[in-house]
Design a protein that fits this description.
The structure is a homodimer of 296-residue chains. With 296 residues, chain A is mainly alpha-helical. The first copy, chain A, has one domain (8-294): Farnesyl Diphosphate Synthase (Orthogonal Bundle), CATH 1.10.600. The first copy, chain A, has 14 helices and 2 strands; from the N terminus they run ααααββαααααααααα. Chain A has helices spanning 8-31, 36-47, 53-64, 73-91, 107-111, 113-132, 138-151, 156-165, 173-198, 207-227, 230-233, 239-242, 248-274, 281-294, and strands at residues 100-101, 104-105. In chain A, strands 1-2 form a two-stranded antiparallel ribbon. In chain A, α7 (138-151) runs antiparallel to α9 (173-198). The longest helix of chain A is centred in the C-terminal third of the chain and has 27 residues, at 248-274. The two termini of chain A are 32 Å apart. Chains A and B meet through α2, α6, α7 and α8 of A and α2, α6, α7 and α8 of B.
């Protein structure tokens, strides 16, 4: 695929034509022979919708670094598996206790709590299986290291811990930022970095962009929880305040949060302009705007 | 280390002199900068005792294949991290709801349920981080694939699902075997296979031995739940029956279970004799006996 589009939605529609079948295959291969009900729970968590932002970033990172999108399919599938597992675990009663996800009953509602815990556990293993099942190259190994670091106690899980641990407290912007960099930013960063690695590029030069984009993404999530309707985002809104979550809106107010999101989007766009000429630069820029526009 | 001992306990004491500091280092490196309370929960799950059977098997597999024990330290640490995460998750209320582990309060008792879920999640990521942080060789990549497969929905997690799902039912020996091969056997197999890979050997030739040993290990666990005192095994006994678990004792009776365990031990020993001359053969044979003797 090498369309000339500068529109993220158009690019994504094409790219998902390659990604979705790859993801379904990787999932089914990893599940062949597994207990049927566990398989259903895992497929329900992984394959029933979602915006596929993280895999898109992996594929775009690969293209931007000069590679073919196909080279980043395993990384894209792996990061989506990690994301799906994190949502399944976040929704269980002892965590966020959410019943609805992507417009459907959460996995723990449909399949029960212990099956949800096991489905999440299995998906994490499946993510590393997909990476390891590529030809065993140094790139695959570096991708696994990158994903493991991002998913671990200093990354996504650490961020979720801080999020849970801060419930009901008043937090400064710096604390909110730390939570967001962990629970959302780490995996966004890893998506881009694994993609850039697959494309033969240097992930270090993407750190600033990845960080801004990760923070922007969680900022809009916090804002949408206040401003959106359930039908728009596929899960109940207004939950953050009910749960006493430390969010950007709680710390900065709604206007302040929108201001922050706007300046994070500007920082991301600036990186892309400064890095010109970059393949897929226009699509990445449109993605930044797409994320920002969701909350304005 | 190259002692001439044929005694597993002696061998293990020496080997753990290399393994424990490596594990502590790998754990602390992976946790540097993580939230303090999460770090404590993870260290409590990973570093407060345990028989270290799986890491020992990885190290022995490496030596048997002709390698130096040091080459298998990352694999040994990774498999222990996966094992520790599985125990933490197994103990939470919606799973086995056990309060005591290794003679101490379970992680969910000491740190709370959601911290236990996150500590387990983090440990799984840390396991793959340790493997990926070796020099990025084909061996490291194959080890990661082996561990991911064993830890996933067809292996350990699949076995735990079957175990949970069969509670209260009457199971045939074949069904018990399937549960045991998954929840315990898969990781025992992966330990040996990763070790053999580290030592430059062919893991395929170890499949029969690994399977017998894995089944033996879970068989003795089932037997000890009926015959042992809490003080001997560091967790309450008699729980299997209370929970309606499908076990070897429930399916075969106590005498039948001991008979099965004995014949699994014989099968393991036969492999070692047939495979002579094998480095560490005597230590492996003593390990088989050590496992069997625990339950007789």
């Amino acid at each position: 695929m090498d369309t000339k589009t500068s529109n993220f939605a158009d690019w994504q529609q094409d790219a998902m034509g390659a990604f979705e079948p790859f993801l379904v295959d990787a999932c089914r291969n990893g599940l062949r022979g597994a207990p049927a009900r566990l398989r259903e729970a895992i497929e329900s968590g992984l394959l029933s919708g979602g915006k596929r932002v993280r895999p898109s970033l992996a594929l775009l990172g690969c293209e931007a670094a000069g590679g073919d999108l196909e080279a980043a399919l395993p990384a894209a599938a792996a990061v989506e598996m990690i994301h799906a597992y994190s949502l399944i675990h976040d929704d269980i009663p002892c965590m966020d206790d959410d019943d609805i996800r992507r417009g459907h009953p959460a996995v723990h509602i449909e399949f029960g709590e212990w099956t949800a815990v096991l489905a999440g556990d299995a998906l994490q293993a499946m993510a590393f299986r997909v990476l390891a099942n590529q030809a065993c190259t140094a790139t695959g190994c570096r991708q696994a290291g990158c994903l493991a670091e991002a998913a671990g106690p200093r990354g996504m899980v650490g961020g979720q811990f801080l999020d849970m641990n801060s419930r009901g407290s008043q937090a400064s912007y710096r604390e909110v930022e730390k939570i967001h960099l962990g629970k959302t930013g780490a995996l966004i960063e890893a998506s881009i970095q694994m993609g850039v690695l697959a494309g033969g590029g240097n992930p270090d030069s993407w750190v600033q962009f990845s960080r801004s984009l990760g923070l922007l993404f969680q900022a809009t999530d916090d804002i949408l929880d206040v401003t959106a309707q359930e039908s728009e985002i596929g899960k109940p809104t207004g939950r953050d305040k009910e749960e006493g979550k430390v969010t950007l809106v709680a710390s900065e107010g709604l206007d302040g949060a929108i201001e922050k999101a706007t300046s994070l989007a500007e920082a991301s766009t600036r990186f892309l302009e400064d890095a010109q000429p970059l393949r897929r630069s226009a699509v990445l820029e449109d993605l930044v705007n797409y994320i920002l526009q969701r909350c304005r």
